[in-house]
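Protein in question passed on here:
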Amino acid sequence: DVQLVESGGGSVQAGGSLRLSCAASGYTSSRYCMGWFRQAPGKEREGVAAIGRDGSTSYADSVKGRFTISKDNAKNTLYLQMNSLKPEDTAMYYCAADRLPVLTLSGSWYNYWGQGTQVTVS
């Protein structure tokens, strides 16, 4: 079974940084597109960043220049480095994965999801 486990969330002041990790098991991450998504209370889920099998990346406009997605195929782990955090970045962050033909920030394409990790920026 595919399993995704996020970690690294927490509380930080505006302007601070956090690095989220997503440990994957049950599949080879190098063959999958992976992404980070977030959902704040009362808001729809939003695609934040995604990385393709070839290492190509895609970012939401709201995080471009501040967030960096990366993955370590040897460790089967996905990362999201978040810098210059803003209060509006406060949300539950989820990682997702699937074997997709194209890189996308649309969550409906992904079938495998983690349980999420909370990020709070004050």
User: Anything to note?
Assistant: The CA atoms of residues 10 and 119 lie 5 Å apart. The mean pLDDT is 95.
